[in-house]
Write a structure and sequence with these properties.
Elements lengths: L4 H22 L8 H14 L3 E2 L5 E2 L2 E2 L5 E4 L2 E3 L14 E10 L2 E10 L5 H19 L7 H14 L3 E2 L5 E3 L6 E5 L16 E4 L2 E3 L5 E3 L6 E3 L5 E3 L2 E4 L6 E2 L6
Antiparallel strand pairs: 1-6, 2-3, 4-6, 5-14, 6-7, 8-12, 9-10, 9-11, 11-16, 12-15, 13-14, 16-17
The structure holds 2-amino-4-trifluoromethylsulfanyl-butyric acid and cobalt (II) ion (2 copies).
Amino acid sequence: MVKNQQQIARMREACAVAATVLQQVKALVRPGVTTQDLDEAGRDFMAALGARSADYGYQIGSRRYPAHTCISVNEEVVHGVPSLRRVLQDGDIVSLDVTVAYNGFIGDNALTIPVGAIDPRLEKLVRVTEESLAIGIKQATIGNRIGDISHAIQSYVESHGYSVVRDLVGHGVGEQMHEPPEVPNFGRRNSGPVIKPGMTLAIEPMVNMGGYRTKTLSDGWTVVTADNSPSAHFEHTVLTTEQGPEVLTVPPQ
Ligand code: MF3
Ligand code: CO
Ligand code: CO
């Protein structure tokens, strides 16, 4: 679960690429664009930077993920499969999750943004979700435990009357997309693995306006809220250091 200096240097690069591509795709979001347009653009942005999608062909059970990014609209929580039929509409919220492989290492990050003008209640959901990520990251300090991150996110989210998804969790990330430890967005203080320097953690609150339950659509990937309430998602890959958490998924200066 702990990376050496060389691995950390490569994680920095992979995460910088992931963050750049996420910003590039984000810039294309507007009413009328299809989620497939965004996915193809994401694939091309990755290629231009010498990276590839870690999602494409990613296997869960017997299924292989068929696209280069995950794009989840409104009640879709995560793992939305881009499609030519999904045209973004004014008033939607869209979650973009970009995971790249670069030089043998993986960077993972996500955000939710409005399409055109959105309902103030959706604006608040998106803001609280982003704030909950920042609050979780603050807990990623040496000597704390993973449960301190989980608890901070859950309490903040629930204090606003929203719920955190339980069926999916954050994770360690490195040469593999999903490594130990799991980083749940719910849990108890002072529980779980102790945080040591050199961990690279994908912290990723998924927040529902309604209940926490989810289901998976018949495409085998798209996770939606069970009650069809809207959902938001923010994710950063974070390095733990003696000086405190460092967000790696930021575009290079
Ligand atoms: N990026 C997602 C995560 O945050 C994983 C996507 S896997 C895929 O963990 F196969 F759905 F692309
Ligand atoms: Co992700
Ligand atoms: Co992730």
